[in-house]
Amino acid sequence: MSEKKDAKVTTATFARMKREGDKITMLTAYDYTMARILDEAGVDSILVGDSASNVVAGWPTTLPITIDQMIYHGAAVARAVRRALVVVDMPFGSYQSGVRDGVAAAARMMKETLADALKIEGGQEMIPVMSAIVNAGVPVVGHLGLTPQSVNKFGGYGLRAKDEAEAAKLRADAKALEAAGCFAIVLEKIPASLAAMVAGEVAVPIIGIGAGAEVDGQVLVGQDMLGMGGMFRPKFVRQYLNLHDEIADAVRRYSADVKGGTFPGPDEQY
Ligand code: KIV
Predict the structure, then answer these.
(1) Whose C-alpha in 196, 197, 211, 226 is 20 to 30 A from the C-alpha of 185?
(2) Can you say whether the dihedral through the CA atoms of 224, 229, 230, 235 is positive or negative?
């Protein structure tokens, strides 16, 4: 490893990690407190995902979240982070209408969040806007496979690229994204064998979520791996804590203490 352990992670670090087979760790965060914990724990990258729409706002899809809301979350995370590479999702509707709108939204998001990079969903059909954003000096992460902003087109959140035609398109899309200047690509919920093939076919890091182990890094929604989602546990999530139950237990104990008159105690007041 050429950089210091605590040196800021950059797009160059990502490229170096792919070359050296050093796996990239990425988790989502949407607020200052969580981002600071993840950064201090040494995660390589923090994704301010538009999954904030589901996880923070409780919407059934990622479609409702706005540019202003993504900027609010992105800026809070960027303020907390010293080392990790901060990537913010461009929300649905901010880049699909064309190059001009996409570049304006990207510039605004970078200025107002001070994040390091943006993520954009979509394949060859998004190349004009992606390359214009890259040419404007903004590092872009691509996102292929299950792209949640297209959930209504797909008709659900099922496994993508199961058939040969969709798998072939995904491989061509990954090469096109690399050629357009994306410095990394997220592959979501596709067969592990296909993801491994793509990781071998492009020079940029492939970050998988539900895409098997033979890729260059992994991303999970922070709340999922911490077990905050209650019964929601997709097959590809490894749950490292059960914070849902731990928080509920703490809240029950707090309520019991307040109602029983044992909180605050003599040392907890002025
Ligand atoms: O919005 C998000 O959290 C994402 C990850 C699931 C990759 O895009």
Answers:
(1) 226
(2) negative
